[in-house]
What we know:
- The protein is mainly beta.
- It is built from 1 helix and 10 strands.
- It has an 8-stranded antiparallel barrel. It has a two-stranded antiparallel ribbon with strand order 7-8.
- The longest helix has 16 residues, at 2-17.
Amino acid sequence: MRIMFAAAGLAMAAALAAAPASAQQITFPAPAFRGGDVVNWNVAMLTQRDLSVDYSLTVPESKGSLQGKLRQKAASAMGDYLLVGKLGTGAAATDLTVKLVPVPLGKQCKDAKGSARGKYGPYTYVVVLTPAKLGQWKQWKGCGNFTMK
């Protein structure tokens, strides 16, 4: 009898472990990501309950903070994150792609001040924000960290 329950338990565990990877949600390892180059621009991204990501971006090209929603998409490599959304509003709005890539082992990401450390410790990710239309915008590259808030 015990053997039958053990076998049933093992079969159930194997079935659950064999769930397809595509069924898993893409989520940040922490509720927030903060990054930028420290001098000219910064971005804060906060995960919402529906797993969308709200962003707040401060850049010299805009008088005020730019805000919007991002959707997480499948990235090309393990540990990478890819998000897409809109930058700006109305007719001037353009698509925005955000890539977060882990800093390779033994390497450092340095901000515009030449530091490899920020408010949340050593930078662990490279962040690249790329607007589809570069007219008034440019591509922003920097460093950042996942944080709890």
